[in-house]
Write a structure and sequence with these properties.
With 371 residues, this protein is mainly beta. Helices cover 6% and strands 43% of the residues. It is built from 2 helices and 27 strands. The protein has helices spanning 79-96, 323-326, and strands at 9-11, 16-18, 36-40, 47-56, 59-63, 69-73, 112-116, 125-130, 137-142, 149-154, 159-165, 173-181, 184-191, 202-208, 220-223, 227-233, 240-246, 251-256, 262-269, 278-288, 294-297, 303-307, 312-316, 332-334, 344-347, 354-357, 364-368. Strands 12-13-14-16-20-19-18-17 form an 8-stranded mixed sheet, with no helix packed on it. A hairpin with a 6-residue loop joins strand 9 (137-142) and strand 10 (149-154). The longest helix is centred in the first third of the chain and has 18 residues, at 79-96. It is globular, with a radius of gyration of 22 Å. The chain starts with 8 loop residues before the first strand and ends with a strand.
């Protein structure tokens, strides 16, 4: 008889079970954190102690004490456990309120590596953004100490060249966003890393995304900077490795990399930005998630993804709702494949599929598809 929870031995109170180690794209509620329970299969012959994570596509996902994620079909559990899960789902939906439409929830599949970046120049990929000029292509940049260059590659990892930002020095580039603004496809680079918390003022560089016809097939070319933005955080010095642009609301968002678990989210309306003036980003949320290393907002402005070194957390807002209100609800936790120092994430051109890289070489391109 096939064990309920997979194929890797571990010890529990009554017996050794075999478990599945699965890295998949899941949902989690902060309200359920740390709530361990003993689960039993339908025959009553097997048990496991774990935290309930989510129910998705007929599968129940559990989080063990050792940090591993395991799964089982809902109908393989005891009737009592199935009833418990259905009631837990009802509680979560009630807690979230009615602003989130369940039909809008993305059924993410397991993440997988689809390519390795070929460019030897990309040795510390710290940000990623999908190209809106060249479908199927992506931009990335290196972390602190790198050149002021953006590197273009496709979904097979092939090197498509690099563009250097004209008259710009890169101090601590941490994240990158692609979006549409004023009818143009744009890229925004965040020079906002602040590990020692010594800097008060941070810099953003806005460029119009180069069109394929404007660049050589392979090699490096130079692009002018359309706008340089100086900003501060309103309440303190912050280390920030995550930025995103909501093109619908015309606002820039930042998520901080706190030493403690709380992550701060700040908002900067484009209308407040002034030339050669450091504008203040206003704090709108304090999130109970690990330190943020990257973020992105879907093109329709409805979903925000925040990355940590381990997993990602997705928030969803209603059409007329502010991000300040949307971020008050528990996040949807998305379990991601293991990677070494993952500091980049973006939505694909479809606004649903997720893409990630890692700062360590060989640099993987990881895709989290929609089932």
């Amino acid at each position: 008889m096939k064990p309920l929870f997979g194929n890797k031995l571990f010890v529990i109170k009554f017996r050794k079970l075999i478990v599945w180690l699965v890295i998949s794209s899941l949902i989690s509620s902060a309200a359920a954190a740390g709530k361990m329970r003993t689960w039993t299969n339908a025959s009553g012959e097997q048990q496991v102690e774990a935290e309930f994570v989510t129910l998705q596509n007929g599968k129940v996902w559990f989080h063990r004490k050792d940090g591993r994620v395991v799964s089982a079909p809902l109908d393989s559990l005891s009737e009592a456990d199935q009833s418990y899960i259905r009631e837990e789902i009802r509680k979560r939906e009630k807690q979230k309120g009615t602003t989130e439409n369940p039909a809008d929830r993305i059924p993410y599949a397991a993440g997988r590596t689809i390519a390795t970046l070929a460019s030897p120049a990309v040795d510390e990929s710290s940000g990623i953004a999908c190209s809106r000029e060249l479908p199927g292509a992506f931009w990335t940049h290196n972390d602190s100490g790198g050149d002021a260059c953006l590197y273009l590659f496709d979904s097979r990892g092939r090197d498509l060249g690099a563009c250097r930002l004209e008259k710009v020095d890169a101090f601590d580039w941490e994240d990158l966003a692609s979006f549409q603004r004023n009818g143009k496809n744009c890229l925004l680079v965040g020079d906002c890393g602040n590990n020692g918390l010594a800097s008060m003022i941070h810099v953003l560089h806005l460029v119009e995304e180069p069109k394929p016809a404007d660049k050589p097939q392979i090699g490096e070319w130079t692009v002018p900077v359309d706008q340089t933005i100086f900003f501060t955080f309103e309440d303190d010095h912050r280390d920030c490795e995550a930025l995103a642009v909501d093109s619908v609301a015309d606002r820039i968002y930042f998520a901080t990399k706190q030493q403690k678990k709380d992550t701060m989210v700040y908002e900067l309306p484009w209308s407040k930005i002034r030339p050669k003036t450091a504008v203040s980003a206003k704090r709108i949320a304090k999130l109970d998630i690990p330190p943020a290393t990257a973020m992105d907002i879907s093109p329709d402005g409805r979903r925000m993804i925040i990355l940590t070194y381990k997993d990602a957390y997705e928030y969803q807002r209603a059409e007329s709702e502010s991000w300040k209100d949307a971020l008050k609800r528990p996040a949807r936790k998305i379990i991601l494949p293991e990677r070494i120092q993952g500091e980049s994430i973006c939505y694909g051109i479809d606004g649903k599929t997720l893409y990630l890289t890692s700062e360590k070489r060989p640099t993987p391109l990881i895709e989290v598809e929609v089932e």
